[in-house]
């Protein structure tokens, strides 16, 4: 599933805010699972980096506060371990 998340993070569909609202929770769930198990950390960080870059670029056109909050709420606990 992580390879699918990587593909999604690099695809044009994640650039669209409507698609991102649907896909982001699924991608974050898989990243959370891998981070909790300390598996494939480089791939996880690459996916998160891609998503943050896309969100930053999107922030010029649309509000992204909800998406950033979703990422923080979804991953903060596992990142602070």
UniProtKB/TrEMBL annotation:
Domain Dedicator of cytokinesis TPR repeats region: residue ranges:
15-81
Give a GO cellular-component term: cytoplasm
Any one Pfam family here would be TPR_DOCK
GO terms for molecular function, please? guanyl-nucleotide exchange factor activity; small GTPase binding
User: Which parts pass through the membrane?
Assistant: none
Q: Name one GO biological process term.
A: small GTPase-mediated signal transduction
Q: Which PANTHER family match?
A: DEDICATOR OF CYTOKINESIS, DEDICATOR OF CYTOKINESIS PROTEIN 3
Name of the featured protein: Dedicator of cytokinesis TPR repeats region domain-containing protein
What species is this protein from?
Hucho hucho (huchen)
Q: What is the lineage of its organism?
A: Eukaryota, Metazoa, Chordata, Craniata, Vertebrata
